[in-house]
Amino acid sequence: MDTKILLTEKEMPTSWYNIVPDLPVPLPPLLHPATKEPTILPPPLFPMALVKQEDTKDPYVEIPDEVRDIYKLWRPTPMYRAFRLEKALGTPAKIFYKYEGVSPAGSHKPNTAVAQAYYNKKEGVKRLATETGAGQWGSALALACNLMGLECKVYMVRASYNQKPYRRIMMETWGAKVVPSPSPDTEFGRSLLAKDPNHPGSLGIAISEAVEDAFPREDTRYSLGSVLNHVLMHQTIIGQEAKKQMDKAGLYPDIVIGCVGGGSNFAGLAFPYIQDKLKKGKKIKIIACEPDACPTLTKGPYAYDFGDTAKMAPIVKMYTLGHTFVPPAIHAGGLRYHGMSPIVSLLQKEGIIEARAYPQKAVFQAALIFARSEGIIPAPEPSHAIKAVIDEAEECKHTGESKTILLALSGHGHFDLGAYDSFLSGKLEDYAYPKEKVEEALKLLPII
Ligand SMILES: *Cc1c(COP(=O)(O)O)cnc(C)c1O
What we know:
The chain is of the alpha/beta class. The chain is built from 18 helices and 17 strands. A hairpin with an 8-residue loop joins strand 14 (302-306) and strand 15 (315-319). The chain binds pyridoxal-5'-phosphate (PLP). Pyridoxal-5'-phosphate binds next to helix 5, helix 12 and helix 16.
């Protein structure tokens, strides 16, 4: 069997898969942050095409030709059989990974960034505003805006802006304007800076600033890189490609594993398989992995909560640690969101997927095993999923089963080498579950 399983550009899927009509129970509606009445995505913030996609009951949505043309810069992405990792572990398991690190931004995020930039452009929008934590989403949107001819303004969490300049430089290389958040460019930012000029910022605050930027401006819309239904749908090209590639390998996964921040790369790979589970009765174990410093699915309640700190974005029914929760500064910046996709949350609630939480030292240990066997240095986020893959492969060793395991390798870790440096020199700290901070934040729930 080949190490790489590749598809031609002609074999690239032509539609995104929408899991919503296949869900066993209806998805609770979004609520308006002020009236708390059921609402749609607010059109002043999003283009109508995406407002509609957020609510669509169509099982498939065609990928526009212009989006497909740009996808061809890096798609179809490769699937690998992890022969060397299997050997290093001495496991009878067959391990595969779908690698999204081949995109220009180095992660899965351009799959939705390009689609979002396209629909905005089509409706005459000139400029997109967004937030970014460590810079992965910001760089994906900067790339997409550049390719579509839109301006891009990124509010970057100040702690990352100061500590990790390379993602900012990448965004600026693609022509985006990047400011540290909280910033003097919004009222909310100014109010926080007045209290603390060195405020380190958070994802929730940066979201609030980007929303405030876009809301009053006719030429500007807001763009979100995860959590929302349309974002997860755009990522399903990953899983549809993966299915074709697994078919070529003549195998079907017993276990599908991904990491979850807001849930988009996990959804991208897993939803087309969950479709088989729900509609064809396929027996697959589907595992979502998160940091134990931000254990949304494993420790949070399933409740309506605000998506952002300033309470401007719609209220969402989801697993949440509370909208004021700021997790410890773990290196997996993309997994530090207090909430979770409403669809992924519902799947967890219904027992269709399972969740696991890991401390970061164990995660980096797993990343090292992967880098030293497969060569690719994984980002800290998917390294949480690698930890689960290794655990499952070890389990196969004990039971003697030769299970097929499929991993979502959402991105490379070339901008995270500082974190690897800390780990290799023994300085990396474990942050345990921040029980008191979570309890504090959960006091504000339920909000309705
Ligand atoms: C942003 C990011 C994540 C987390 O976001 P999801 O929406 O949960 O996928 C995971 N991996 C990488 C490489 C990322 O950039």
